[in-house]
Amino acid sequence: MSTDSKKIVIVEDEPSLVFTLQDTLENEGYDVYVANKGDKAVNIVKKENPDLMVLDLMLPGMSGFDVCRKVRGMNYTFPIIILTARDQEIDKVTGLNIGADDYMTKPFGVKELLARIQARLRRSEEYASATPINEVDLDPIKINLKDAVAEHPEDGKLELTTREVELIRYLVAHANEPVSRDALLENVWRYEFSTNTRTVDVHISKLRSKIEMHPDDPKYLVTLHGVGYMLKMS
User: Fold this and answer.
1) What residues are paired with 54 via a beta bridge?
2) Greatest distance between any 2 Cα atoms in the chain
3) What is the pLDDT confidence band of residue 198, given thresholds at 50, 70 and 90?
4) Angle (deg, nearest 10), helices 15-27 and 110-129
5) Average pLDDT, the chain
6) Most Cβ neighbours (<10 Å): which of 3, 63, 169, 194?
7) How far apart are CA 42 and CA 62, in angstroms?
C-alpha cells in the first residue's frame, strides 16, 4: 500500500507525543495534520477529508468521545484509532459503540501504532474498492444505501447511520449465511479482537426497527441463537 497523499489527523494535546507521532508518520510519507483540541480536529476533517484519525480521549473542551461522535454523525467513514491513558473496559466499549475502529492504551509502542495504521488504511482501501451494493429490497421496505435511508411504508424515510449502512452491506454480501458477532466486529467495526460487549446486539436491534415491519418478530434479519445472525433473502 502506498502512503502517498494519505492524510492522517493527529488529535492530541501532549506536545512531546505529537512531535514523535508527527515525525514518525511524516518520515513514512504521510501528510500529517495536528489538532490539540476537538473543535479544531472537526474543522480539519471538514476541510481535508482525511484517510485516518489518531484520536486522544482526554482533550481540553470537546472530549475524544465527542469528536468521534461528531465525525461519525457527519457520515465520515475513515478509520479512527483511539489513544488513551485509560484502561477500563467501559472506555473500550464506548469507543467501539460510537464508531472507533481500534484502541491503544498509553504508553504504547510507536511501531505498533504504525502497524495498526497501515492495517486500517489497507482495510479501508479494500472496502472502498469493493463493488458497492446500493439498493436492497426487504419487501415492503426499500433500502437505499447510497442515500442512507430506509423507506418504511408506515414511518416514511428513516435515516441510516454509517454503521448501519456498513452492517447491511456486509449482511447482504453474506445473505442466507450464518454470521457471528465476532465476524461483524472484525469486518464492520474492523475490530481485530473479540470483546464481551453487546454492541453488535444493540446495533442489530436498532437496525431492525428501521428495516423490519415487526422488529420483535423479524422476517429478514433473524437471530441464530448461539451463533449470531442471518439476513434471509430470496
Assistant:
1) 10, 81
2) 57
3) confident
4) 60
5) 89
6) 169
7) 10
Residue 189 C-beta-side C-alpha neighbours within 13 Å: 27
**Per-residue confidence (pLDDT) for residue 214, from 0 to 100:** 96
**1-10, 24-33, 103-112: the lowest-pLDDT one:** 1-10
pTM, entire model:
0.68
The one-letter amino acid at 42: V
Rounded average pLDDT over 219-233: 95
Nine cell digits for residue 214: 415487526
The stretch 7-14 carries a mean pLDDT of 96
